[in-house]
Amino acid sequence: MKSRSLLLYVLCLLPFLWPVLRGAAYPFIEKQILFEAGGGYPSIRIPCILALPDNTVLAVAAGRSRVSDWADIDMIMRRSGDGGKTWGPVTVLADAGTEVADNPVLIWDRDTKAVHFLHQVDYARVYHMQSTDGGKTFSPAVEITPQLGAFKGKYDWTVIAPGPGHGIQLKNGRLVVPVWLAAGQPLASGHGRAHQPSVTASIYSDDHGKTWQCGEILPDTLKNMNETVAVPMDDGGVMFVIRNGEPGAYSKAISRSPDGATGWTKPELNQELYSPICFGSALRISGAPDKSRILFCNPDSRVNLRPNRSGSGRARMNLTVKLSYDEGQSWPASKVIEPAHSSYSDLAMLPDGTILCLYENANKYVSLARFNLEWLTDVRDSLSK
User: Fold this and answer.
1) How confident is the model at residue 384 (pLDDT cuts 50, 70, 90)?
2) pTM
3) Bridge partners for 256 per DSSP
4) Which helix (H) or strand (E) holds 18?
5) In whole numbers, what is the pLDDT of the chain averaged over residues?
6) How far apart are CA 374 and CA 385, in angstroms?
7) Which positions fall inside the Sialidase domain (predicted)?
8) Which domains, ranges and CATH numbers included, belong to the chain?
9) CA 174 to CA 288: how far, in whole Å?
10) Are the CB atoms for 191 and 132 separated by under 8 Å?
């Protein structure tokens, strides 16, 4: 009788002990609020996160004087030295006076050990900054818009913006940043310009951010392609995961390039990547010679707030992270990070394999979720394997 009770006890514990026995970590997810509306910023939006090899984490968001994209907006930042467990105070990274400073992009340059930061001002000018001390300080902003003049000859834009979210560095050292261009007319309010119609392209640097060049504009086959995230591919190419306004589609589009600048394929809708017309993040967490693993994060809610009207009436909630093992062809694993109102997000990964997701909550908060692959896959997969 005692042996039977002991056996039952062991069997009950087995699901909890199995990750340890097989060399995997125990599944976990932790959440904390990093930015909260108030103190001059009634709205907090547009998260961007970057993890460095020494466990430093940089988190950037847009502190807005009001919800509008054309508000007085500052780029604000917090810095962590312990993998996102504890954080320093909120600091202002970019302030354009009463103009917009938004659309943050962070990139880690593994060759120079520098952090690159790009953003736009007034949706008319793009700036580059750099840190050589892990984000403790940044160089003065340098406008790079004149270097992007080639776009004007191909698309007469009135709005330009990078990202948002992290950029990437390819195996050959190239820095790649998605940008979107819009030919919008002045708004009826008299302040700002419409963000439609729009197209997507890339900018890149082959000299560690000293100069920037225009990549090709993607084939304009879907309506209003704009906010995009880049993923480095195992073959050395780049995959773009693209927000778009294709009528009735409500899914991300995918385009691929052999070098992050040229030869972009026709953007194709991916029905597995549902999107309520919202920015979503993607991140490679492993690749050759290891198993290919790419994450995607986006609100995955099918609730229609305006069933009798066209447009982006789908609710931004149910923030979901998905996993692909075949270079973005399919996404067999998924978990909900935040079931409530949630919108834009950005992804990063610590040296120990902990995944970071910085995401919006109801325009009032930007929160951080820390989790591992064991949580996402119900212990079916582990980076420690």
Assistant:
1) confident
2) 0.93
3) 239
4) helix 2-21
5) 93
6) 11
7) 59-355
8) 30-376 (2.120.10.10)
9) 19
10) no
